[in-house]
Write a structure and sequence with these properties.
The mean pLDDT is 92. A hairpin with a 2-residue loop joins strand 9 and strand 10. By secondary structure, the chain is mostly helical. It has 16 helices and ten strands. A two-stranded antiparallel sheet has the order 1-6.
Length: 352
């Protein structure tokens, strides 16, 4: 069946409804923020740029909850110094999901990827526990605003382990992902700031702690990337010097995921010039070719180093971000200060 794309009016109404959920919904815990964030993330990873509905298993939503909360369950840091405070995510006692994740971190260590790979039984157990919370708490209450049920995302069945995003919903999540993510994370930060006001005082870097990029861990990728790139900068194709940096090929600002196959090594000058821009087609082709030629070695070394990696998810994210950039007639980075509009040739890179 062919599903029609949502009309411009329907897309605007979708964004208005998202705003209503965030502004008018009753939030006694941060679960609803995490749920909308998880739905948007999964629409990117599993959806298509069509108006089709999207079936989602609640265990996939639960796994996203763990990823979103994992960093937030660590002791809060101010100026790089740990305070020993695990941030409250509930207006009453600590949220159950936080307690369960903190327990897993204490038993299995701070690496989420290692938990998935090495302690896989505990990972599956944790996801099942979070799944039960998701189905009990936010899933069937998310779309309630006051005494009104919006039901614009999925039908509120009040039970079950699957939901179906309504026609056009996955499309809108994909089309407005960055905007929606900023709305959610901004509201989430304000909620956590309010709940922890007596303990946080005038802290200003809360958003960075909750959702920011962890630059310190990037050094672990350097020796692996040096070898698979033969000590050549991915962008200018010249020999790398000591002044090189690990870079997110798909920028963190476009989709926040630390996945090993997305990292490249580049001269600091190239990396700084690229910044948060999407790379041009020639760089995309070079990145795809690197991952293709060194797929086995990359996967083995990333797993051995307990560094997060998922080639299929990385490729899906890259395809999505280039699709959205083409639709917006967006610009891509070529070199130094040179930008140009993305052409339709980008899709041939993936086809090859």
């Amino acid at each position: 069946m062919t599903w029609p794309m949502p009309t411009p009016e329907e897309q605007v109404q979708f964004l208005r409804n998202i705003q209503r959920l965030l502004a008018e919904g009753l939030f006694v815990a941060s679960y609803k923020f995490a749920l909308v964030h998880a739905l948007a993330d999964l629409a990117v990873l599993k959806g298509e740029d069509t108006g089709a509905p999207l079936d989602l298993d609640t265990k996939d939503i639960a796994a996203k909850f763990v990823e979103l909360y994992w960093r937030q369950c660590r002791p809060f840091q101010v100026g790089g110094e740990a305070t020993g405070l695990v941030l409250q995510q509930n207006t009453g006692r600590q949220a159950a999901i936080i307690s369960k994740i903190v327990d897993s971190q204490q038993k299995c260590g701070a690496s989420l990827f290692r938990l998935k790979q090495v302690a896989s039984d505990r990972w599956l157990e944790l996801v099942a526990e979070i799944d039960n919370v998701v189905r009990t708490m936010p899933l069937w209450k998310l779309q309630t605003v006051g005494e009104e049920r919006l039901n614009f995302l999925y039908e509120n069945l009040d039970r079950g382990n699957r939901i179906t995003l309504k026609p056009g919903v996955a499309y809108c999540f994909r089309a407005f992902y960055e905007l929606i993510r900023d709305l959610i994370e901004g509201a989430w930060v304000r909620f956590v700031q309010k709940v922890n006001a007596n303990k946080l005082g005038t802290v200003t870097d809360l958003g960075t702690f909750l959702f920011g990029e962890e630059r310190a861990c990037l050094d672990a990728y350097r020796p692996i990337l040096l070898d698979v790139q033969k000590r050549i900068c991915l962008y200018c194709q010249k020999p790398l010097s000591k002044q090189s940096q690990a870079d997110h090929f798909v920028p963190w600002s476009r989709y926040p995921a630390d996945l090993g196959h997305n990292f490249v090594l580049a001269h600091d000058k190239c990396n700084n010039a690229k910044s948060d821009f999407l790379a041009a087609e020639n760089h995309l082709a070079a990145w795809i070719e690197r991952n293709r030629l060194h797929q086995v070695e990359l996967q083995a070394r990333l797993v051995a180093a307990a560094l997060p990696c998922d080639l299929a998810a990385t490729v899906q994210i890259a395809k999505w971000v280039y699709q959205q950039t083409e639709k917006a007639n967006g610009q891509v980075w070529v070199m130094e200060k040179v930008l140009r509009h993305l052409s339709t040739d980008w899709s041939q890179c993936f086809a090859a």
